[in-house]
Amino acid sequence: MEVSLQLSVTKDQAQALQEAVRCFYLISQGKTYSCQAYMDSYENGMQVIKYIGGKIPVETSLVDANLKANGRDWKTATADEF
Questions:
Q1: In this structure, how many other beta carbons lie within 10 angstroms of the beta carbon of residue 5?
Q2: CA separation for the pair 73, 29 (Å, rounded)
Q3: Residues near 5 by Cβ (< 8 Å), separated by ≥ 6?
Q4: Which tens digits make up the pLDDT trace of 43-65?
Q5: Taking the alpha carbons of 55, 60, 23, 7 in that order, is the dihedral positive or negative?
């Protein structure tokens, strides 16, 4: 099983990133899937996400919302709050 994502030039970055992250989270190691094949799919998914401009596992907008709800921000939050 190979994870590949074909990006259309008409898609905006947010949509392409959402699709790449979705594909990444759907990667699983089946009974007949070797460790190396799984790791190759994992790395491929990470590269696609980085190419688009995203990163895993942190979605900064979700972190921002959580920090704001607790009256904190990136400068005042502790490592445990992230």
A1: 16
A2: 37
A3: 16, 19, 20, 23, 48
A4: 999 999 888 888 776 667 777 88
A5: negative
